[in-house]
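Lecture notes, unit on protein representations.

Consider one protein chain, 752 amino acids long.
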Amino acid sequence: MANDKFETYFAEKLWEMIPAIYRHEDGLDTNPNMGVLRSFVLLFAEQAAILRRSHDRLWGDQFIDLCCDWAVPYIADLVGTRLVSAKNKRGRRIDVAKTIYYRRRKGTLRVLEELISDITGWEGVVVEKFKRLGRSRHGLDPFPSSLSGMHTKTLPGGWADIRQQQGSELTLSPFDEFYYTADVRQQNGTDGLFGIPKLAFYLYKLQSFRVEDVEPFDLGDGLKYGFDPSGRDIPLFARRNRPDDWDEWRSAYEWELPLPIRCRLLGHTEYLITESHIQKLNSGPGLSTGAINDLRSMSNVHFYTECRLKLTLQTLSNYNEIKNPAILLPLLGYSIIDKCGKKTLLPDYFQATGSKASNDYSIAVEDITSSEIFSSDKIVPGNLKNWTNNAPDEKKIIIDPEYGRLLFTDNESGREVSVSYHYGFSGNVGAGTYDRQDILEIESNSSIIVGGKGMSFFDIKNNGITQINDNKTYWPTCNKNKIVNMTFQAANQKRPYIRLDDPWIMGSGVNKDSNLCIDGLWFGSTGSQELIIQGDFECVVIKHCTLDPGGDIDMEGNIIHPLPLVIEGNIETLILDSSITAPIFCRNGGLVENLKIYDSIIQSVDAEFALQINNGSVEMNRVTVFGAIEVLRLFASETILTNSSKVSKVKDTQNSCFCFSAAPIDSRLPKPYESYLYSGDTNFWFTSKKFGQPGFAQILDISPVEIRRGAENGSEMGAFSSLINPIKMDSLRAKVEEYMPFGLIHLFINKT
């Protein structure tokens, strides 16, 4: 509801209309019914405000893009659409708004792919499987083309060339270039995909988040770096790059979807020199007549690799002039075609020399010392699992997008490096570069931190707002022991990394009823460190944060330790919202009266408890717990407790509640209601249980239906319940059946 203050306005207007004597009598302390008249006025004012808002909305409620949610079914009735679930508010509104648009294009691939984005918010590719059957090509068949946008090596309907790694990597993806015999079986995983009536919907549910100007993980020699500041191996993602204008629709290329970047995709280059490119070069650095004629001889010739283009250039009589970097680099920048991976994923010559703020690429590397952004012609993809340097001499950087690694080939040290890239994750949980609309606005006396550095006592305010405005790496140099009302946050859409070299204490000292808010920060450590809260707090809020749960090794082979949250003070209310944490427990007499956890993930990578609060009450809504818990009182809903060597225990089961949740059958819980008690392994429920991987805590389709559909609203249990993915899937299925061609069979395949 808008903060229009209509209730206050009408209350004062009505109060002024009442004779003064009655207002005076209502306010006397001697009146046993003091304030009753004022209470009636407030009730009338509330209803008057409702009427006023309704009156103001009368015009807007006639339009689907402006109307309130209650009006959507009425407009839907006018166009005669079949409404999807009311829980999928966005999909329902778009469906009604575009019903006529859909009907005009019913049965086309265009509208089917558009439905994926409109109804669910995901990305996807629709493939007609009869086109991937090994058969003789009919004269009426469309001219064969590569689904991935890359130059294909497999002829239509021909035998697979297994010597081509590119085709092998794309097998069973929407960009598969191989051909298959018909499979009439019903779909079961990768079985039963190919047949004349089968229409496959490849879905990409993970989101791609951009993070800029990150201080990469330095292996110490000035040459080897990791994109992830914690030192983990992570896959780099492509940004979502689909055309927003659906009138220009075409099926997506691989580099336009939010998916992990393959090494060969990052190196995919194609070149086409045209007369306009030659004229641009001649008007810039200038060319001799002989060089112009040489380049014209190559005009409109399609080169499928950079190597082939350069070998051809070497055959020209004026090659010594053309190989000048002032000519060759702009030539490569001009002639690289838009429909190739390297053009989209890396900054080209003109983007690297232009505005640093450009977002028209997925990966960028900058040498801050020289202010150089490395263009795609200086970058080559490669396998850096063993840090092997096999790059050509003219290349300066090797990037391994599958491990998130970076290697300089020039053997120069002393540089300062900054990287920008995209990472994948299911939703807005944990520290991330997504939009945090509830962030506090900084004030004139707020402390602003930038640049990446050690933070001193005076950088972080005990009473006020401290904000980090970039994605650099920081480390505290002292504890905070005098907190009064402290807010420590990252700027909106920023994800700074806070590295603890020692245990960090955040305490109130002699202050009572202090308040602490930590928002948007990622905490990690160089060893077995802890984030410790001491003193007396009225409220502690940790939201959109990550306290690294560990369970991995960095690029140097060192163990990444978990960073637990330790309570050694007295906290009246502790709120954990949309966060990822290591174990949480009390120690040395620590007390939490009320612990509230929402939309979060708690993980213990060892045999200890993930949550151990032996006093107060714990409320958990939409939480995924990797490990066991031990609490006094528990009120849980849409929560998953996974199996562990420890047994989950709730001491006061009489005053607790456990509903629409899952737990091991040997757990000590209150009487479960509409819950799933299981035995056996839970690893197959999740895409990954390793923090840092894109599919961390994402529930798989092969998990029990009680998990996938066990929430109170019919969604999945756990931290991503609010994404309502199962409900979106039902909505998409209903709309696809309505608009797909008659007689075809739809297949849904989740790729991420």
